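User: Can you predict the 3D structure of AraC family transcriptional regulator? Sequence below.
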Amino acid sequence: MPHQPPPDRFQLVRDGASGVEAVRARFSGHAYDLHRHDEWLIGVTHRGVQDFFCRGARQRSTTGRVILIEPQEAHDGQAGAEGGFAYSMLYLPRRWLSVALADTPGGDPGFAATLQDDPALARAIHAAWNALAGGAPALARDAALDAVLHRLRPHLGRPERRPEASRDTRVARRARDRLHDMLASEIGADALARAAGAADRFQLARAFRAAYGTAPHAYLVQQRLLRARQMLAAGEAPARVAAACGFADQSHLGRWFRRAYGMAPGAYRACCTGVPDRAAPPG
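Assistant: Sure. Here are the predicted structure tokens for AraC family transcriptional regulator:
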């Protein structure tokens, strides 16, 4: 029997707060006719050859390459080799990007080339898709999109502004205190920026990283893990700890705890107390 290509697949999710849409798709042949978008498109080819017309020429994106398409640039899409292709794409609204770049002067931004070899940006796009499609907390989604913006800036000719040390230090400290006060609650980057007195979430992200060496969401997860470790060592059950520390459930706590400490929460509790967790399977 002749080999049957896998069925085409198209999945789209939308982040309501930012308006960013994320697509993950697989096509075995023709994907779409010539068309335009009003957003900035940034994507990465995961597998195969992604063949498309853009800027007056045929483009061929292979595994790991980044695709950059400006608003209103006409393009089509199809497989460029047997076996089809798979890709992820983010659609960044014009206003979202304009606000994000407001800290740096310059004319209208633009991409120097449609295809780029930028593994760091490719990883950021992949991570953003996972955050949006996986229903990550608001602060985690915002952090993933901010990481994309950080990696995208060189391709737009817009380097990040150097922090204003005194003001940004105060902003970072207020944001840190707010995170400690809301350890078990969910907060988005825009709300955190307002609470900290930052001009916007992008100033907050720069200030926080300069002060504490990490993004606000990563810092929040680290603090939640520290609190969870303390509670487990005191004999609290993993399910109760997960709820008290802002994790979605015991499995969510377990995934983060193993990544940080190399063991399950229930196993850590048993080591500290000598009492195995029999109320529920170890997280």
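The first strand starts at residue 9 and ends at 14. Confidence is low (pLDDT under 50) at residues 279-283.
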